[in-house]
Write a structure and sequence with these properties.
By secondary structure, the chain is mostly beta strands. It has 3 helices and 29 strands. The protein binds zinc ion (ZN) (2 copies).
Length: 565
């Protein structure tokens, strides 16, 4: 695969040089026939209705049978570019005198997610890119005096909208890395952001098969179309300027897409408004759950649809498989079932939050300040998503009374053990002495003995934040004959590293209003996890535990600054 950064050819500035590389016809990794692959992304919302025909999109290479609505005096009318997918029921469009609006649920009608080997644990969920949260393309693009480079700007949000209603983000992720080159993308060039919003990071050249050569595959958010490898008249692509496009000979301008970096739109030739690092306005993706951290070493190997509203993502890590299965209900609530590679099964449910809306008069108040925006990108340095919390349940890891108690076909003989604290009630409030408001010592913890064969115990104290799981306390190598830790103990087992990389208890000290939920999970292990001498973080420990867990249990409690229980 050709992904050399040396092909990065444009510099910020005028799009004058014809330095964009010629189109390379080599096969690219996200482009393939649909064949017999699972139809992975059928509707989970109202905007997709015409999927019952069962026709493969590849059977429809020239479905643009409708005559252009307006004779293309100066080229194509934008509506014609989107007509193929509007006919398929995947998008709907409208316009006013300024904008062309595209509504979609953000889910493409092609297999997705498979092939990602740098996965942030997000999954595709339907989005409400509708109403005043629809995508909007300027109907009268205005040539910018100075093109705005996308090389180190516009690293957040979309820079273009594909004609199937899926946003295209900058090929560089918001850390400036080539998202395709580092394995973040599926075979179609897409993945999910922190709001579980699916988007592409490279040009969706596979759409050429559906819309036909010579039709745009996308529109840049400055209003100029993006073509694939051929000119609108079917002739081979002419040389490109540093923006990745050229004059169209009729007073207009268009871009072309390449199969390798810089893929598309090296700079905006048309005027765009930049606000907080992204093109403004653009819709906002709405998370229903907190974002998760990357799952290192995982590759997504399957994405299926076992039932109409259910999706099942299967990943492989260390030669073993885990899965995330989720069902979207009519009211937008989502029920997740996670089975980790050790066979542990947990469930979570989330309710949709009121949408903030992407434009003026956008309905319910936005939960967070800031402009409307698509889903923030995964990874360090990403903007924070809304601090959504599960409305019910949360993680119910092995809680015998919780919704995750159904062990189903779990491979291991995993069992639940009760975990408690003599200092506070299960589900209760953490006394201040165990927080930064007090002495900040670790709380006492007790647990039921594990099953026979238990060789050691491990314990973690964690919290699920919008940024992922935070870890405050890690203890392992606790001898099998011990079933409690007194408060402030430092000599039971071995202390692992908290998120501050210190081998100690990190007292709860949450900023911000409201009580937050924390969890102490105790694992009964069939052996002693092997970790490096420097000590184990929670992630390292869980990796080392692998399938050693014979049983586990979680004690949940809440803590709020300055509130004395
Ligand atoms: Zn992304
Ligand atoms: Zn051209």
């Amino acid at each position: 695969m050709i992904r050399a950064r040396s092909t990065r050819v444009f510099a910020a500035g005028a799009c004058l040089a014809t330095t964009f590389l010629a189109h390379d016809a080599a096969a690219h990794p996200w482009h393939r026939h649909r064949g017999d692959e699972a139809r992975a992304s059928e509707d989970a919302s109202a905007t997709t209705s015409d999927r019952s025909s069962g026709r493969e999109a590849t059977d429809l290479p020239f479905i643009l049978t409708a005559a252009p609505r307006t004779p293309p005096a100066r080229g194509l009318d934008i509506a014609d570019a989107f007509a193929a997918f509007e006919k398929l029921g995947q998008i709907s469009t409208r316009r006013d005198d300024r904008w062309f609006f595209v509504e979609s649920n953000g889910l493409p009608d092609h297999p997705l997610m498979v092939g990602i080997r740098n996965w942030q644990q997000q999954v595709p969920l339907p989005q409400t890119y509708t109403g005043d949260n629809a995508w909007r393309i300027p109907l009268q693009p205005v040539r910018a005096r100075e093109p705005a480079s996308t090389k180190n700007r516009f690293l957040r949000g979309a820079i273009a909208l594909a004609v199937n209603g899926i946003p295209i983000f900058n090929p560089l992720n918001n850390r400036g890395e080539d998202a395709l080159a580092i394995g973040e993308l599926d075979e179609y060039g897409g993945h999910c952001g922190r709001a579980d919003d699916y988007h592409y990071h490279v040009a969706p050249l596979h759409l050429e098969k559906i819309v036909g050569k010579g039709m745009p595959i996308a529109y840049a958010l400055d209003g100029y179309p993006v073509y694939g490898s051929t000119e609108p008249d079917g002739s081979p692509m002419k040389p490109l300027d540093a923006c990745g496009g050229h004059e169209d000979g009729a007073g207009g301008y268009h871009y072309h897409a390449l199969e390798k970096y810089p893929y598309l739109i090296g700079a905006f030739r048309g005027e765009v408004i930049e606000r907080e690092g992204q093109v403004d306005p653009q819709p906002r993706a709405q998370p229903v759950r907190p974002a998760l951290p990357p799952l290192r070493g995982a590759t997504i190997v399957g994405f299926e649809s076992p039932a109409p509203e259910t999706r099942k993502l299967v990943y492989e890590v260390g030669g073993r498989r885990g899965s995330v299965e989720y069902t979207v209900a009519g009211d937008g609530s989502v029920q997740f079932t996670f089975v980790d590679p050790a066979g542990r099964r947990t469930t979570e449910s989330y309710q949709p939050r009121p949408r903030g809306g992407g434009g003026p008069g956008g309905g319910a108040p936005r939960p967070e300040r800031g402009p409307p925006r698509p889903g923030p990108e995964p990874g360090p340095g990403a903007p924070r998503p809304d601090p959504t919390q599960p409305r019910q349940g949360g993680r119910a890891a092995m809680d015998p009374n919780g919704p995750g108690a159904d062990a189903g076909s779990r491979r291991l003989a995993s069992r639940a053990i009760a975990v408690s604290s003599p200092a506070f009630e299960t589900g209760g409030k953490l006394p201040a002495k165990y927080s930064c408001d007090g002495a900040g010592i670790s709380p006492p913890v007790a647990w039921q003995p594990g099953p026979s064969g238990t060789q050691s115990y491990a314990l973690t104290l964690w919290h699920r934040s919008p940024d992922g799981v935070k870890s405050y306390w890690v203890v392992y190598d606790i001898p099998a004959d011990i079933t409690q830790i007194p408060e402030g103990a430092r000599s039971v087992g071995r202390m692992g590293l908290n998120d501050k990389r210190r081998a100690e208890y990190d007292p709860m000290c949450s900023k911000g209003p409201g009580a937050k939920e924390y969890h102490i999970t105790v694992y009964a292990l069939s052996g002693r996890p092997q970790v490096a001498a420097g000590g184990a973080s929670r992630a390292t420990l869980l990796e080392a535990i692998g399938d050693m867990a014979l049983a586990e249990g979680t004690l949940t409690f809440s803590f709020e600054r300055g509130v004395r229980p």
